[in-house]
Amino acid sequence: MPLTAKSIKNAYALAKERYADLGLNTDTAIATLAKIPISLHCWQGDDVGGFENHGTGLTGGIAVTGNYPGKARNPEELRADVEKALECIPGRHRINLHAFYGEFGGKKVDRNEIEPKHFQNWIDWAKQLKLGMDFNPTCFSHPKASDGFTLSHTDRGIRNFWIEHCIASREIGAAMGKALGSPTVTNVWIPDGYKDTPVDRMSPRKRLTESLDKIFAKPISPKVNLDAVECKLFGIGSESYVVGSHEFYLGYAIKNQKLLCLDAGHFHPTEGIADKITSTLLYVPEILLHVSRGVRWDSDHVVVLDDALQSIAQELVRNKLLNRTRIGLDFFDASINRIAAWVIGTRNTIKSLLIAMLEPPSLAEAERNGDFSARLAWMEEAKSLPWSAVWDQYCTMSGVPVGEAWLAEVQGYEKTVLSKR
Ligand code: RNT
Ligand code: ZN
């Protein structure tokens, strides 16, 4: 039996009362939650394919596995698919593009020649849907990245090519931010690294610093563009050494007051990013999150409502850090319906924030009082509070499917649209 409007309302009324007894206002939680945008990564829709055709396929030490039918083949299809996903997600969000999703009208425009005009259709579409936009230079899947090095390459010509690409990307980010009245986060991630043990770990890092300094030389107003840098531990084919490691970018971001991007899949397999949030935010102005799920390696699985995700949300909410954190998603699964992947991952991320917002104040109080038995007791009891009734209410208020009802929507779209591709 599907949930009825009446049962959702009744369940919410009971939940509201239960939380009120604990000192929490569920209406306030919903209103706060509705103001937090999640940046949906366009690349889940086409397996990080992009709209160029250099014949290199996906490179850069990342991999998409699966061959589920119906992937988006062009900008129109990708936008339609994102719209379908957004219809199943409560709130107002953002769309995160990579540079190789530009529209070049059949002309060959190399990465160092891209301009805001190549993204005008995306900007117009985002404006219409009231979405903010985020951006990324694409320093992979290109002949000039074929040996695995870009901004730290030994060849000055190749380095300069990628520097120009990143400079062009910042300008595009600024144009997007200006057009949409909300700053674009332009995130630099490069794949540079070695499969096997290097002898010289220092020189590539020096070159990367120099390249980044050139890229960021021109000041751009933070009202339109914010620069972020993303670290990584290893990639496929860069197992032994990654130039842009955590320590490298942590230092660079602190020194230059850039946003540090923390991707959940970019650390040792048992290392979470939640515990890094308060430390880094003491030294950098803001952070960008790539909410992802590494399984055994940086495998970019769809985000589920697990402890790692909930810890991230708790850190942001407990420490009131949401206004200094840009939340983006980064996963790519081609083994399931790609729209379902977006919906599942995004709904889970929003759910985790809601659960964190509904944490009883008694938890922090117990810790302040040094009562660690009470802290653990509350931590565990809090897990079975009726947050799902509040979530259902939020979905109802937002006019999006409640509970599993979104799945039928996505299945219907698969039948009428995706299966015809
Ligand atoms: C790769 C990084 C990077 C990419 C996207 C496509 O390891 O996580 O963020 O996933 O830019
Ligand atoms: Zn990432």
Helix and strand topology:
Elements: H1 5-21, H2 26-33, E1 38-41, H3 75-86, E2 94-98, H4 120-128, E3 132-136, H5 156-180, E4 184-188, E5 193-194, H6 202-215, E6 225-230, E7 241-242, H7 246-256, E8 259-263, H8 274-280, E9 287-291, E10 293-295, E11 297-301, H9 307-318, E12 325-329, H10 338-357, H11 362-368, H12 372-382, H13 387-398, H14 405-416
Parallel strand pairs: 1-2, 1-12, 2-3, 4-6, 6-8, 8-9, 9-12
Antiparallel strand pairs: 5-7, 10-11
Helix pairs in contact: 1-13, 3-10, 5-6, 8-9, 9-10, 11-12
Bound molecules: L-rhamnitol and zinc ion.
Any overview of this molecule?
With 421 residues, the protein is α/β, with parallel strands linked by helices. It has one domain (37-360): Alpha-Beta Barrel (TIM Barrel). 42% of the residues lie in helices and 12% in strands. The protein contains 14 helices and twelve strands. It has an eight-stranded parallel beta sheet. The protein has a two-stranded antiparallel sheet with strand order 5-7. Helix 8 links the parallel strand 8 and strand 9. The structure holds L-rhamnitol and zinc ion. Zinc ion binds at residues 230, 263, 290, 330.
The CATH H-level homologous superfamily: Divalent-metal-dependent TIM barrel enzymes
CATH fold annotation: TIM Barrel
Q: Beta-sheet strand percentage?
A: 5-15%
The strand order across the widest sheet is: 3-2-1-12-9-8-6-4
Distance between the termini: 33 Å
User: What is the name of the CATH class?
Assistant: Alpha Beta
Helix-residue proportion:
40-55%
